[in-house]
Design goal:
Order of helices and strands: HHEEEEEEEEHHHEHHEEH
CATH architecture of the largest domain: Sandwich
Strand content: 15-25%
Strand order of the largest sheet: 1-8-3-6
Number of strands: 11
CATH superfamily of the largest domain: Jelly Rolls
Largest sheet: 4 strands, antiparallel
Radius of gyration: 18 Å
Shape: elongated
Number of domains: 2
Number of helices: 8
CATH class of the largest domain: Mainly Beta
Helix content: 40-55%
Length: 238
């Protein structure tokens, strides 16, 4: 994982409640004014409170979601157990795999904080893909980038020890989600366990180890990474 300490500045820090508009995303910049107007006519804005489910695994996928503000988690439910696939901030798209697979959601998504989304008619998205090759190509790029992230997650879950897995998550949260070393952890200890494929007890124990070693500082829900380079070494050695 590429982790540069000088990347983190107060100016770069993410306000999870700031609004992100589709027009800011390269994907939607590929649309003509007419196509943008058509897409806007096929969307509604929805608000979800913390803990509310945005879509359910196994349900028919009639919509694609764009996160305007907030943070969500996507997770798989298997045999009464959950495995969190990813954490997504504002500006993310949810449900792209349903466009070309079998029109059902293969995972659930839940709001980790109060979250606003645009819900787009999936048929409008499919129609644009057929008519606009640049738009379709951008969607393929987004999907491929997500696949690369999933490969990294798969390696972490199957090849790294527990300390390395949790180190990966804290580095990812600080680098890709919050973009700061000091952030409010919107996930429970159970979420951390489901994100790293370990028991809640193990997640709590390793969190305690990191605190006692002076790697992180935890105050309530606020988490501060004190020694990012040491955390990076733990991630690298697994």
């Amino acid at each position: 994982m590429d982790f540069k300490e000088d990347f983190f500045t107060p100016e770069n820090a993410l306000d999870i409640y700031c609004l992100r508009h589709p027009e800011e995303i390269p994907l939607f910049k590929r649309l003509t004014d007419e196509e943008t107007e058509m897409l806007n006519h096929n969307r509604v804005q929805l608000s979800f409170r913390k803990g509310e489910i945005i879509h359910k695994q196994g349900a028919f996928a009639s919509n694609i979601f764009f996160v305007i503000s907030g943070i969500v988690k996507s997770y798989m439910e298997v045999s009464n157990k959950n495995l969190i696939i990813c954490i997504l901030p504002a500006g993310s798209l949810i449900g792209l795999t349903s466009i070309s697979v079998d029109n059902v959601f293969h995972y659930s998504t839940k709001a980790l904080v109060d979250t606003d989304v645009y819900s787009y008619d999936i048929n409008a998205i499919k129609n644009l893909m057929r008519k606009n090759p640049l738009f379709a190509s951008e969607l393929v790029d987004i999907t491929n980038n997500k696949m690369v992230s999933l490969y990294e997650r798969f390696f972490s879950l199957t090849q790294k020890q527990l300390h390395g897995r949790l180190a990966d998550i804290f580095l990812c949260l600080s680098h890709k989600i919050y973009k700061t070393l000091n952030f409010e952890l919107c996930m429970s200890r159970k979420d951390l366990a489901e994100l790293t494929g370990m028991s809640t007890e193990s997640a709590i124990r390793i969190l305690k180890d990191f605190k006692e070693d002076g790697i992180i500082e935890v105050s309530g829900k606020n988490l501060k990474i004190l020694k990012p380079e040491k955390l990076k070494r733990i991630s690298a050695t697994g």
